[in-house]
Design a protein that fits this description.
The chain is mostly helical. The protein has a domain of 77 residues. The chain is built from 4 helices and no strands. Helix 2 packs across helix 4 and helix 3 packs antiparallel against helix 4. The longest helix has 24 residues. The protein starts with 12 loop residues before the first helix and ends in a 10-residue tail after the last helix. About 4% of the residues have low confidence.
């Protein structure tokens, strides 16, 4: 029986769309000023309702825990893909790192690491 060599995986349309969206957001953020010029005022942002903000926090916590559960049962390739995505949103060489981007990338890696606690032990270990 002849051995088959694995074909390289083509990125899914959803992954391509997500990467394109992240890249567009990163490029849009590159044009924004880093600070206010003297005499300029930032437009006031509408206040978030405390109830809505609390609900948003609850949903984020639920989603984070759901992702951890999925990664705990996921394949090593899926976990590797999550790490790759974190590296993808990290600042690129020559770009100024934005604190929120750096923090988001580190949080993604942390979620993958947290899923380690819930993985079934490797029977070969």
């Amino acid at each position: 029986m002849a051995e088959r060599t694995p074909r390289p995986r083509q990125p899914s349309p959803q992954r391509q769309a997500a990467l394109a969206r992240l890249q567009a957001e990163a490029l849009a953020g590159a044009d924004t000023p880093k600070g206010d010029a003297p005499g300029e005022r930032r437009p006031a942002q509408p206040p978030a309702e405390s109830v809505e903000l609390a609900q948003l926090r609850v949903r984020v916590i639920a989603l984070e825990n759901l992702v951890i559960a999925l990664l705990a049962e996921g394949s090593e390739r899926q976990r590797e893909l999550a790490r790759e995505m974190a590296a993808y949103i990290s600042p690129r060489p020559g770009c100024t790192p934005h604190p929120l981007t750096v923090h988001a990338a580190s949080q993604m890696v942390r979620v993958v690491e947290r899923s380690d606690y819930f993985r079934a032990p490797d029977p070969e270990a």
